[in-house]
Design goal:
Layout: E1 10-12, H1 14-22, H2 29-37, H3 44-54, H4 60-66, E2 70-72, H5 89-92, H6 96-112, H7 117-125, H8 129-146, H9 149-164
Antiparallel strand pairs: 1-2
Helix pairs in contact: 2-3, 2-6, 6-8, 6-9, 7-8, 8-9
């Protein structure tokens, strides 16, 4: 693994958010998984640890940053505004429900593709955190079934963070 400075957190750029939604550039599955996990709340050391467990390339942070998918928190002044996520209060204060629903959807799609119509229908119909709590056990089973144990633990841990609303880096623009 490359040496990475401690306490550096990364967030997705607008391009990174679009790549998660649209899959335009067809990132490798392991790079895409790492992009899913980058949310501004994890320092680079923890991301490197996750990457080792998932089997992502050693230079995943450098690659994602070089291609404009992520940026270092606190480095926003040196970036074109078109690369930064919207800085509206609503965007910065994205509610836990929306963030968790999006994460669950993205991670299931990443693991299974569009073959899980019934689960995705339940997920898209969720309107409150309580709705997500009801389908969370199904989500856990699906993730555990399709992913390697360590990768599944990382993804489920990330989903649990949304339930718990914990963050690690104060400079994060959004979850």
């Amino acid at each position: 693994m490359n040496m990475v400075m401690e306490d550096i957190c990364y967030s997705k750029t607008t391009q990174g958010l679009e790549e998660i939604q649209l899959r335009k550039n067809k990132l490798s599955p392991k790079l895409r998984t790492m992009l899913l996990l980058i949310d501004g709340s994890k320092d680079s050391d923890l991301l490197v640890e996750h990457a080792m467990k998932i089997g992502a390339p050693d230079d995943f942070l450098e690659t994602l940053e070089a291609h404009g998918y992520i940026y270092r928190n606190g480095n926003e002044d040196n970036m074109p505004s078109t690369m930064l996520p919207s800085s509206t209060p609503q965007r910065r204060q994205m509610d836990r429900f929306g963030a968790l629903r999006d994460f669950m959807s993205d991670s299931i799609m990443d693991a299974y593709g569009a073959s899980l119509f019934a689960f995705m229908k339940k997920l898209s119909g969720a309107q409150r955190m309580e709705d997500l709590n009801v389908i969370y056990a199904d989500y856990q089973k699906l993730i555990n079934k399709r992913m390697k144990t360590e990768a599944a633990a990382i993804m489920l841990g990330k989903a649990q963070e949304y339930f718990d609303a914990q963050t690690g880096c104060p400079d994060s623009k959004f979850p």
